[in-house]
Specification:
The protein is an alpha/beta fold and about 270 residues long. Helix content is about 55%, strand content about 15%. Helix 4 (about 75-85) runs parallel beside helix 5 and helix 8 (about 175-195) crosses helix 9 (about 200-220). The protein is elongated, with a radius of gyration of 21 Å.
Length: about 270
């Protein structure tokens, strides 16, 4: 279904770049992919390096694309959409936002009552084909529209359709989670170095352990607690380490971090 879709991406920063990389790796045709960025040099370099098309402005991109990914900073989303609205040539593309704190209602108001809007919350592992994206349908989108967005984001990971009221929770868990996990990997590696491993070996071992544990959760369908119990032999090293983590408030710290992210997301303004 995506083979003939014309995809536009406004903003080629971290998230826009990750989506571009993931979409092309997943099979979206470079000839049908259009980019725009206010940074003309970055736009030219990104378009050339990926073999895609650079649009002159957001209106040109929106008028020639079927799906428009709006990957600008939250404070710029609504003005970007208002600028596009005034220059659409009887064309009604599917707009997909990746911004935190900008609601579907605000975007529909900026684009007009008949606009087709989907709000998403992806994460940067899309760049390596392992992204996680929450998808929220706007007022005027069809099931086919939502399916198309999910198909696009599934090219470089997994997509989950949720109610918009839950998007801040998804942001705190999957949108921000790569940062938490990188910190965890770094801490594991630091401990390995402290006990004699090289930095390179420690990073490889820690990152592969996290990758393997994640796949166990996704592919076995077992409860994470059961998988944890299976590693903890009576009187063994793992249960000793788990006890140390619990004494340090490991779970509570993670929950508090997610709670802080969710509250920040609720208070952000477009």
């Amino acid at each position: 279904m995506l083979a003939d879709i014309r995809l536009g991406i406004i903003g080629t920063g971290n998230m826009g770049g990750a989506i571009l990389h993931g979409a092309l790796a997943g099979g979206v045709a470079p000839a049908n992919t259009f980019l725009f960025d206010l940074d003309a040099r970055r736009l030219a370099q990104t378009a050339k390096s990926h073999g895609v098309r650079a649009a002159a402005d957001t209106a040109e991109l929106s008028n020639c694309c079927d799906i428009v990914i709006v990957a600008v900073k939250p404070y710029g989303v609504l003005q970007t959409l208002r600028d596009i609205k005034s220059r659409l040539n009887n064309h009604n593309p599917l707009f997909v936002s990746v911004a935190a704190g900008v609601t579907i209602a605000e975007m529909e108001e900026s684009l007009g009552s008949s606009s087709r809007v989907v709000r998403t919350m992806p994460n940067t592992p899309a760049m390596v084909g392992e992204g996680m994206t929450a998808v929220c349908a706007g007022t005027n989108v069809s099931q086919e529209d939502v399916g198309l967005v999910c198909e696009l984001f599934n090219l470089f990971g997994k997509a989950e359709v949720i109610d918009e009221r839950l998007i801040d929770a998804s942001m705190g868990i999957s949108g921000c989670a790569p940062a938490y996990v990188y910190m965890f990997i770094e801490a594991l590696a630091d401990a390995g170095v402290m006990h004699g491993l090289s930095r390179s070996s420690a990073y490889t071992m820690a990152a592969q352990a996290v990758l393997g544990a994640s796949k166990m959760v996704l592919e076995t369908g077992q409860h994470p607690g059961a998988l944890k119990d299976a590693v903890c032999s009576p009187g063994g090293t793992t249960i000793e380490a788990v006890a140390a983590l619990e004494r340090a408030g490991f779970r509570g710290s993670v929950i508090n971090a997610v709670d802080a992210a969710v509250n920040k997301g609720k208070n952000m303004k477009g």
